[in-house]
Amino acid sequence: MEFFDVLKTRHSVRSYANTPVEEEKLDQILEAINRAPSAGNLQAFEVYVVTRDNHRKELAAAALGQNFMAQAPVALVFCSDADRSARKYRQRGASLYCLQDATIACTYAMLAVTALGLSSVWVGAFHENQVSAILELPQTHRPVAMLSIGYAAEGPRIRPRRELDDLIHRI
Q: pTM for this one?
């Protein structure tokens, strides 16, 4: 798929078919994550690939009952690693750059998912402590975004976008 077609095609999907994601496609998504830019090329993030049904159900509960997390065959949990970023960038790295790194990586994954004919939805509403406990994360890994991935069971709900004149400010 051409890049600008990926951007036009990508929409959040919250209903997934009972079809597994092929390992080759998952590997391509993970490789896209590894290609994401990061502050100082430190890659101050960690990604947890969650495929076990019971863990995805628990993540759905931790995500305030967003049950599509359990329905999707794959969930990726993106965590910031403040310590990794702070080594070079001190407090700004620990409080900001590692968060940016994790969210850029999630964006790369989301676009790769679309390019591969799969669907996803970014999940930002969840109880961090619960996600950390479910995945038994080290204290240095803070969950900042989750991405459910699978084949869409239905078309996405297309929402309007802001007009560029309202969004863009030329100075």
A: 0.95
| CATH number of the domain bearing residue 71 | 3.40.109.10
* DSSP-derived 3-state class of residue 131: helix
Q: How many Cβ atoms are within 10 Å of 159's Cβ, its own excluded? A: 7
- Please give the Cα distance from 80 to 60 (Å, whole number): 20
Can you give the residue range of the structural domain that contains 99? 3-153
In the chain, % helix, strand, coil (3-state, to 5) comes to: 50, 20, 35
Residues 106-153 pLDDT 10s:
999 999 999 999 999 999 999 999 999 999 999 999 999 999 999 999
**H-only helix segments in the chain:** 3-9, 23-35, 53-62, 68-71, 82-92, 98-115, 128-135, 164-167
